[in-house]
Design goal:
This is Beta-ketoacyl-[acyl-carrier-protein] synthase family protein. It holds the Pfam family Ketoacyl-synt_C. Helix 11 links the parallel strand 11 and strand 12. The chain is about 30% helix and about 20% strand. The protein contains 13 helices and 18 strands. The C terminus is likely disordered.
Length: about 450
């Protein structure tokens, strides 16, 4: 059976750089850092006192079913719902119908045949920590009835499905920091097979809480730099660890024929996906297993390594992990005579856990649209071991046909996506973010 093509027709993002994909892209090109002194709690007792925090004032939840409950959920649920609503609006898939009186705005009715696939790593960890402290300090009677629903990782996907009236499957993937990338990949497979016509897919995370800092400090994973302008430093010779970030990125994925029939704008086509298992250390990244994962994604897309123009890396500023990933990229391109340019967005956003892969995908889609590689912020001093690798320091105009996206998680969970450029089509209304380019489906095989 011939597999269907899968395209991205809507993007929703909330992150330290802003609450739209346009703000994300503008921040990346401008070299703006979303890293700042941590404000969600007093971090004085920790080595790291920085974070990439979302501006909660920008996260306005849509009116609709369960609005009262969703407002009381953990931040990762609210961020996911916000991003999904933006993706739906951006895609134009939902038909607007008059209000039935239960909401303040017209409803947006999505067609049948859809699903939700969402990646979450640590989910409601802040709610767990706060709930335990309140119980111990103020007594059991002070425990919120929203505590359990708020901490369940699947509640983000549930909120999206319930709000948008999606009656078919909702799937939550908990593959550590590869979760979001796996969720997009699984949604792509479901549409490819014909099981679904469209899907909302992505990842969300918000775990800026003392227990997160305590745990990662014990692992010596957090950067010790105090200056937000100096850390994290992906690939840099002086890199010393990650900075915690918050984000959600959700995409409207669609069967290309369905998108073409309704005249949808298309950001790009998902052409390859792979996920595998393997590591040499339970919390580390293995070069050989990452190389194998990327190679499998290329095979799934039926393209050769030398057709990849840019790699949006996992790279978070960790000493061993950044090195292992660069070595894998080198191995992947070995013998081809052509190395792809490599970039990382973590210097801008921090490490966003389950949202790592989806955030990379959002950046890659904009790079393909604008034919520009975004820079690796705070990368200043080359690591001599990787002097042969082309790492983007500044925004770079380039002919981009395909990008490779990486995301890896503890326990040897590796995931890679291949996204290809869509070609311009005529007579397209400019988007609300001032981007006059529209796109049609055009697989680049």
């Amino acid at each position: 059976m011939q597999r269907r093509s899968v395209v991205v027709t809507g993007v929703g993002v909330v992150c330290p750089l802003g609450s739209t994909v346009g703000e994300l892209w503008q921040g990346l090109l401008a070299g703006r850092s979303g890293i700042a002194p941590l404000t969600r709690f007093d971090p004085a007792r920790f080595h790291s006192r920085l974070a990439g925090q979302v501006d909660d004032a920008a996260v306005t939840l849509p009116t609709g079913p369960f609005q009262f409950e969703f407002k009381r959920m953990s931040a990762f649920v609210r961020y996911a719902l916000f991003a999904a609503d933006r993706a739906v609006e951006d895609s134009g898939l939902a038909a607007r119908t008059p209000s039935d009186g239960s909401t303040q705005q017209p409803r947006r009715d999505l067609p049948p045949g859809g699903a939700v696939f969402l990646g979450v790593a640590m989910g409601g960890l802040p709610s767990i920590e706060a709930g335990v402290l309140k119980q111990e300090q103020q007594g059991v009677r002070k425990t919120s009835p929203f505590l359990i629903p708020s901490l369940i990782p699947s509640m983000a996907a549930s909120a999206i499905a319930l709000h948008h009236g999606i009656a078919d499957e909702q799937v939550t993937i908990a593959g550590a920091c590869a979760s979001g990338c796996q969720a997009v990949g699984q949604a792509m497979r479901a549409i490819r097979s014909g099981a679904r016509t469209w899907a909302l897919a992505g990842g969300a995370e918000s775990v800026t809480t003392p227990i997160t800092y305590s745990g990662f400090q014990a692992m010596k994973a957090l950067s010790r730099y105090d200056d937000p302008a100096s850390t994290p430093r992906p690939f840099d010779r002086r890199r010393d660890g990650m900075v915690v970030g918050e984000a959600a990125a959700v995409f409207l994925l669609e069967d290309s024929e369905h998108a073409e029939a309704r005249g949808a704008q298309v950001y790009g086509e998902l052409t390859g996906y792979a996920t595998n298992s393997g590591c040499d250390d339970i919390t580390g990244i293995s070069t050989r297993h990452v190389t194998r994962c990327m190679s499998s994604a290329l095979a799934d897309a039926a393209v050769a390594p030398d057709t990849i123009d840019c790699v949006f890396a996992q790279a978070s500023g960790m000493v061993q992990a950044d090195a292992a990933e660069l070595a894998a990229v080198r191995d992947l391109a070995s013998g081809t005579g052509r190395q792809p340019v490599v970039t990382s967005i973590k210097g801008h956003t921090g490490y966003t856990f389950a949202a790592n892969g989806p955030m990379n995908l959002a950046a890659a889609l904009m790079a393909l649209r604008h034919q520009t590689v975004s820079p690796t912020l705070k990368y200043e001093q080359t690591d001599p071991e990787f002097a042969d690798i082309d790492i983007a320091r500044e925004p770079r105009k380039a002919e981009l046909r395909r990008c490779l996206i990486n995301a890896f998680g503890f326990g040897g969970i590796n995931a890679s996506l291949i996204v290809s450029r869509a070609q311009p089509r005529t007579a397209v209304t400019p988007s609300s973010e001032g981007d006059s380019l529209g796109f049609r489906v055009d697989a680049l095989r």
